[in-house]
Design a protein that fits this description.
With about 250 residues, this protein is an alpha/beta fold. The chain is built from twelve helices and eight strands. The protein is about 45% helix and about 15% strand. The structure holds 2-phosphoglycolic acid (PGA).
């Protein structure tokens, strides 16, 4: 069985005080035994998060990484540095990275490879725009983004990823995909993974992201191919995020 993963994506939000508040609240919280929880923190808070989350239920994650191992790349952060700080997960290919920072499929692939080289688990983000959905291109776009990475990976590496389906039109908009819409895309992703390997498809965690909140998480997470969530806005409030984690049990 797949262990659900709820990952909070703080984006460029939060503070040192919020890191401490989450560490304290989660250390005392009752979480379902079979749920994994991670927080993807901004780079400056990873050190504090690594220390504060130690021994508790929160796993540490980052939001992106460089595709280069080291060197003259001012402002960049390598996979080795993230691993040094105790990060387990790293988001790759988030739609904001793709659109605002020009990361195309090749850039996403290179970052996934860099993450794997340093023992990090990439959470590969896929998703279509509203225009693409309305043109009935959702599956073509999402499965194309998937293939751009998975075709290039050696088979034994593929199982180390998790995938987040995040329809771009649902991110930060308050407009969530319906459980049926999300389930349909998740099923298509799993079917495509089965073309590589049946065991890979069975074991892969497929997270839904895009305006997941405490009041809609349960019905999304109840879908057979939704194995967790990538939560933006609602991961900035301890109580909201805890409620989502609790509904994943
Ligand atoms: P949201 O963001 O939950 O605020 O829609 C999700 C994400 O971008 O990861």
């Amino acid at each position: 069985m797949r262990t659900p993963l709820i990952a909070g994506n703080w984006k460029m939000n939060g503070s040192l005080a919020l890191v401490e508040a989450f560490a304290e609240a989660f250390a005392e919280a009752r979480l379902p035994a079979d749920v994994e929880v991670a927080l993807m923190l901004p780079f400056p808070y990873l050190g504090a998060g690594g220390a504060a989350f130690r021994g508790g239920p929160l796993a540490l994650g980052a939001q992106t990484l460089s595709d280069q191992p080291s060197g003259a790349f001012t402002g960049e952060v390598s996979g080795a540095m993230l691993a040094d700080l105790g990060a387990r997960y790293v988001l790759v290919g988030h739609s904001e990275r793709r659109t605002l920072f020009g990361e195309d499929d090749a850039a996403v692939r290179a970052r996934v490879e860099a993450a794997l080289e340093h023992g990090l688990a990439p959470v590969l983000c896929l998703g279509e725009t509203l225009e693409e959905r309305e043109a009935e291109r959702t599956e073509a776009v999402v499965l194309g983004q998937l293939a751009a990475v998975f075709d290039a990976l050696p088979p034994e590496q593929r199982q180390r990823l998790a995938i987040a389906y995040e329809p771009v039109w649902a991110i930060g908009t308050g407009r969530t995909a319906s459980p049926e819409q999300a389930q349909a895309v998740h099923a298509a992703i799993r079917a495509r993974l089965a073309d590589y390997d049946a065991g890979l498809a069975e074991g892969m965690r497929l997270l839904y992201g895009g305006s997941m909140k405490a009041d809609n998480a349960a019905e999304l997470l109840a879908q057979s191919d939704i194995d967790g969530g990538l939560v933006g806005g609602a991961s900035l409030k301890v109580d909201d995020f805890l409620a989502i984690c609790q509904s994943a049990g």
